[in-house]
Specification:
The chain is α/β, with parallel strands linked by helices. It is built from eight helices and 18 strands. Bound molecules: flavin mononucleotide (FMN). Flavin mononucleotide binds next to strand 6.
């Protein structure tokens, strides 16, 4: 018998536990030639903001020994453009679309989730809280329990759709922020966003990224991401979407065993746009080989004896 890959998370019913991570799969449409979004557990969009953003100074991408640095700076065309030009592509009801939301103020998050909640194509929101809040001297929301609580509460007041809060690894205690998100009414957490990093061109003695620093992703961050998933799993009761350097089904399985109910794949999409489908197939093969009836049996099954 085929093992069950279906997952229920935050009130969503997903056909499998594999999603594409925000910012690495566009809005789903750009990759349609490689991956039918309907075959994925869910597609998480690139982060959208209320107003159009130009993004950071180029260069914005740099390859590293085991991953990549990016400083895209949330470049996007804003909420209205997303509604007008992107949402229409999601006619297929089999696609689960999770919209990633960013903002400079709590009100901005609230307004975006409120306006998007009326569209039946939208299944849930992921709050990208690795953004500076201009009302608090540009403090990064995800680095502060109180700011995290406030933004989640504001989003909660404005939508009944599931809220997934995306945690940043650039903190001293990620479990503390996860608890703040849970207390404020989140339905799930996703982790991790990128690590702050940089790279220098020694010829010019300039930083390779126009923004000087950027976010590190890919295989280099996997062991740390995995440790953080494990830590969060032991600190809250909400379901977890794990990500950070997942390139293969085996990587994905590690996250699931550590406690993630679902996984998201990011950087690997740039290396192999079809990787998400291979990861789904690999997870299924593992379940068959190890005689599991379904993926849920594996979640958080780490043997610590
Ligand atoms: C080019 C690029 C763009 C990204 N854009 C976003 C974004 O818009 N919003 C967000 O929450 N995360 C963004 N991320 C972070 C990813 O969603 C993911 O959390 C991170 O890259 C770790 O997963 P990975 O190692 O599999 O890439 C971006 C990552 C990359 C590489």
């Amino acid at each position: 018998m085929k093992p069950r890959l279906e997952v229920k998370i935050a009130g969503l019913k997903l056909k499998n536990p594999v999603m594409t991570a925000s910012g690495t799969f566009g809005y789903g449409d750009e990759f349609a030639d490689y991956v039918d979004p309907a075959r994925l557990g869910a597609v998480i969009t690139k982060t959208i903001t209320l107003h159009r953003r130009e993004g950071n100074r180029p260069p914005r991408i740099s390859e590293t020994a085991a991953g990549m640095l990016n400083s895209i700076g949330l470049q996007n065309n804003g909420l209205d453009d997303f509604i007008k030009n992107k949402l229409g592509a999601y006619k297929d009801p089999r696609i689960k679309l999770i919209v990633s939301v960013g903002g400079e103020t709590n009100a901005e998050y609230g307004r975006i989730v409120r306006e998007l909640s009326v569209f039946k194509q939208v299944s849930a929101f992921e709050l990208n809280i690795s953004c500076p809040n201009i009302e608090y001297k540009d403090k990064i929301i995800a680095q502060d329990e109180r700011l995290t609580r406030e933004v989640v509460k504001e989003a909660r007041r404005n939508t009944r759709l599931p809220l997934i809060v995306k945690l940043s690894p650039n903190v001293d205690d990620i479990a503390k922020i996860a608890r703040a998100a849970q207390d404020a009414g989140a339905d799930a957490v996703s982790l991790i966003n990128t690590f702050l990093g940089m790279a220098i061109d020694v010829r010019t003695r300039k930083s390779i990224l126009g923004n000087i620093t950027g976010g590190l992703s890919g295989p280099a961050i996997k062991p740390i991401a995995l440790r953080m998933v494990w830590q969060v799993r032991n600190s809250i009761t909400l379901p977890i979407i794990g990500m950070g350097g997942i390139m293969t089904a085996r990587d994905a399985l590690e996250f699931i065993i550590a406690g993630a109910s679902c996984v998201a794949v990011g950087t690997v999409n740039f290396v192999d746009p079809g990787a998400s489908l291979e990861i789904i197939a690999g997870i299924e093969r593992y379940l068959v080989e190890h005689k599991f009836k379904g993926i849920n049996e594996l979640v958080g099954s780490l043997n610590v004896s």
